[in-house]
Design a protein that fits this description.
Elements lengths: L19 H5 L30 E10 L16 H13 L5 E3 L8 E12 L15 H13 L5 E9 L11 E6 L1 E3 L13 E3 L5 H11 L14 H14 L4 H10 L14 E7 L4
Parallel strand pairs: 3-8, 6-7
Antiparallel strand pairs: 1-3, 1-4, 2-3, 5-8
Helix pairs in contact: 2-3, 4-5, 4-6
């Protein structure tokens, strides 16, 4: 198991409190736009086995380059995160599996740690029909990554643990942390930054952006930022417009109070957004 806190499946014990802004974004959903508190440094606790000894449910943290996929959800005739991951598991266990993600991400949105669950029954390849004890999580991680790296190498399993049969990656999630990368200034982006961040050629007024953030702090109706799977990107779009002078603090207040998504300026592009962490109540 990895000890990198960026990747591990977190527990509820954390020295940090949720930030004020994070609490105001809205109710949890399975959409990509659910910003919450930053992850803690806690690692993975003891392993727990499925209630059915023949089938093991695994919780899997994955990272991927979002610009290489047509989103996370499986789609016909499209390369998706779930589609590629299910294919790798199929090659590993020798039978089809269904994978369920904690959060949907749009095409272009990256993930440092999106979390999924999958049920696996280990069948002997030497004696078809014979059910063997479940694989250890470390074996699952190594084997699935082997097949993923044979593909495009743009998705990787970063953590695995065994969970009970009723543990659901989406419904058991307590917090989801997102961040958005935006670089401003006239200089061209580094080759390594392209498709990884939003480049705004204008110099941004950080003080104006901070004042706009104050308007969004607290408990509000965020209907103006509730387009399907685009909440964070709409918020970033407003802050960027405040930074360029296209919106004033009064404009931000007007957009917030309008309670309609048509009042917001264009949303920020997908490739600057990262799903950083999903938090669970794990033993």
């Amino acid at each position: 198991m990895t000890e990198n806190p960026k990747h591990v499946l977190d527990t509820t014990e954390t020295p940090q409190k949720p930030s004020k802004v994070a609490k105001t974004i809205g109710d949890p959903s399975d959409d990509e736009e659910e910003p919450h508190q930053q992850q803690s440094d806690s690692g993975i606790g003891p392993q727990s086995m499925s209630q059915n000894p023949k089938i093991q449910r695994y919780l899997i943290a994955i990272e991927y380059i979002g610009t290489r996929f047509s989103g996370s959800q499986q789609q016909l005739n499209c390369r998706t995160v779930v589609g590629v991951l299910q294919e790798a598991f199929h090659k590993f266990v020798g039978q089809p599996v269904s994978i369920f993600c904690s959060s949907r991400t749009d095409a272009g949105v990256h993930a440092l740690s999106n979390v999924c669950h999958v049920d696996v029954e280990r069948i002997s390849k030497r004696k078809p029909g014979e059910v063997l004890p479940p694989h250890e999580p470390a074996v699952v991680k190594k084997a699935v990554n082997h097949f993923l790296q044979k593909n495009e190498g743009d998705i990787m399993v970063v953590d695995v643990r065994s969970v009970s049969a009723d543990f659901h990656a989406r419904y058991k999630a307590q917090e989801r942390t997102y961040f958005y990368r935006l670089l401003s200034g006239p200089e061209s982006l580094s080759t390594f930054e392209k498709d990884r961040t939003w480049h705004v050629p204008e110099e941004l007024n950080l003080q104006a952006m901070q004042e706009a953030c104050k308007v969004l702090g607290g408990h509000h109706d965020f209907s103006s930022f509730r387009a399907a799977a685009c909440q964070v990107r709409l918020l970033v779009g407003v802050l960027k417009s405040a930074g360029t002078g296209d919106l004033t603090v009064s404009d931000v207040e007007r957009i917030l109070n309008a309670k309609t998504v048509t009042a917001a300026p264009p949303m920020a592009p997908a490739h600057g957004l990262y799903l950083a962490h999903v938090k669970y109540d794990l033993p």
